[in-house]
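hi support,

uploading two proteins for the ticket. first:
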Amino acid sequence: MPHDDGNGFVEDTYRVDLPARFMARLAQQYTGEEARESKSISQEDNLRRINGQLSEHIRSVESSLNILKVENTDLTTEIINSKMHVASTEDEKGHLRHQLNQIKQEFEQYQKNMSVAYEKQLKELSLENRKLCERNTNLVEQLTDTESLLINMKLSFVERETEFEALKRQLYDSKKVK
């Protein structure tokens, strides 16, 4: 029954007798496919919406990441500067400790030298004092001897003067008598 024209095909299609069960199954398949397609379209819309939200979230995260990178760079620079400052301070502290130790050593050496010089000078002064004390004692003895001699000389002079006066009186008396 093939017909050569398109109308015949349509007529043949209408003549085909399809069982109701088969038609129900086809209708059910169509409805399922339509529901799946609708669900698929709904899922695509949902995925597009989620994709848009994710894209926005990614832009926000990238922006936050860029801000964090800048902050991290700034913080790293600050940390490096702080570490350099700490190292510089430690270096200066070490230098000052070294200078302090040198000054302490010099001061201790100065104290030792001063102590030695003081003891030496004290010994010299003590020796000189002892010599001066001995000389003073000798001078005191000489003075005492000289004073004794002077006193003896004065006494002797007084005696002689007294004798002279007595002789002078005798001579005067003897001249008077004559």
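and the second one:
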Amino acid sequence: MANLGDLLGKLLALVDHHAAAPFTSRLPGMLETACRDGHLLTLLPVVCGILRQLSASGVEGDGDVQTALSMLKDIGDLPNIRLQLQFNVVRLFKELQLDIDSLQTTGRVSTTAMAASEVQEQS
């Protein structure tokens, strides 16, 4: 899945910022849905690959990309997160040379993850 994210990121980097904006604006919603539905293991490597390639090509993030990065910080801080996912998040921030502690939390992930766990407990 990470290779798919790298490929999508390279394709988005080839187009101009305005053409990539509709896709990058969906990244936060995709992360939120993956948290809620339990598909983070599938989606998180794709999102990390996309962000890695966009950064490598010099496409600077807009507000949606910054929100996605903040949500990745939230995901990495979840108490029961798989080590593989946490490693993907930490590696992305190191490759982007970003201080993970400098980002603000969104609160969107923790409330979504709590809602998903409540649904699983009721079943």
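thanks. also noticed: The chain has one domain: 2-117.
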